[in-house]
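Hi support team,

I've been running sequence recovery on a batch of backbones for a student project. Most finish fine, but this one hangs at about 90% for roughly twenty minutes before it completes. I'm not sure whether the input is malformed or the queue is just slow. I've pasted the structure tokens below so you can try to reproduce it. Let me know if you need the job ID as well.

Thanks,
M.K.
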């Protein structure tokens, strides 16, 4: 984790009165985020390991929701589960008001939740095509 990101996460923890420090790797965090998205029936969940090709993050988690309401529910579920399990809140959340693309920045993991047409338009999987792609095994 980069020093500035670690500092920002601690600031958020202090503001939200989180106690303790739960250690987790960025890969584990990405998997838990994907599981939380799956709990709210997100589709086409993909994990991209971008650490070798970008300084922005270690992983991107990309998921699709089929309505603005579902996208917000997926985002809320991710936030609740990660706070509950690891006492980590996102550094920044963008797009919740608009609701067609929500971005959650956890420092080492960045989450993108799209409506299908926006996911197709922005096509992050192709843009980051040189990153290692990890298919998430969705629950049945």
């Amino acid at each position: 984790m980069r020093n500035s990101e670690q500092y920002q996460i601690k600031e958020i923890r202090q503001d939200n009165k989180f106690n303790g420090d739960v250690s987790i790797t960025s890969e584990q965090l990405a998997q838990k985020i994907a599981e939380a998205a799956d709990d709210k029936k997100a589709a086409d969940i993909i994990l991209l390991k971008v650490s070798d090709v970008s300084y922005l993050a270690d992983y991107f988690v990309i998921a699709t929701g089929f309505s603005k309401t579902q996208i917000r529910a997926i985002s809320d579920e991710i936030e609740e589960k990660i706070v509950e399990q690891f006492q980590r809140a996102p550094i920044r959340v963008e797009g919740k008001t608009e609701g067609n693309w929500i971005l959650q920045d956890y420092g080492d993991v960045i989450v993108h939740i799209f409506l299908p047409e926006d996911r197709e338009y922005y096509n992050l999987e192709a843009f980051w095509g040189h990153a290692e792609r990890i298919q998430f095994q969705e629950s049945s």
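--
Follow-up from support: It reproduced on our side and the slowdown came from queue contention, not your input. The longest strand covers residues 43-49. No action needed from you.
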